[in-house]
Automatic annotation (TrEMBL):
Annotated protein name in UniProt: Crp/Fnr family transcriptional regulator
Domain Cyclic nucleotide-binding, chain residue ranges per copy: 36-115
Top-level taxon of the source organism: Bacteria
Membrane-crossing residue ranges in chain numbering: none
Amino acid sequence: MPDPLLQLKQVMNATAPMPETDWEEFSSFFKPFAAKRKEVLTKAGETEKYLYFVTEGVQRIFYYDDQNREATLVFTYAPSFGGVLDALLLQQPSRYYYETLTPSVFLRAAISDILPITNQRPALSFLIRQGVTHALSGVLERLVELQCFTSEEKFRQLLRRSPHILQLVPHKYLANYLGIEATNFSKLINKVRI
């Protein structure tokens, strides 16, 4: 299994390489953390305290409305960052839940350690802006899919973007993520050539 800190460094360098001194300070804040299956790491109403880097497992961010309807918004899995990023960076109560779908292993860093050094380390500040910009771009793309695509087009786009997702995430969560009834999702799996 790859070294988790090396995985983190590779993901960060793919976004925006940083000086070694910045990396050493930044990486020193990340500590190993493990969670069981179906563990809620962040609840709605809580301020997100940690930036997670996923090294094993699958998680999701989801929302409950006032009628107790559930909406799966995002999946995270290795090697990627996780957590409720808007609540983390704004330091405001989360509107969403962050839950493990499988047993999960992370590196996590307290935002109270990270935020102060972003003012002192321009490369780190740039990296965070790049990460947020990429996330926003993905959200906008997903909004177009949700508003304009048919169920089949949404399903095909999901498979283009993440071909391995059918093996990682239980289908009921994928159906919810796409806004498709579970029975229609099953029909799509049988209909669409993968």
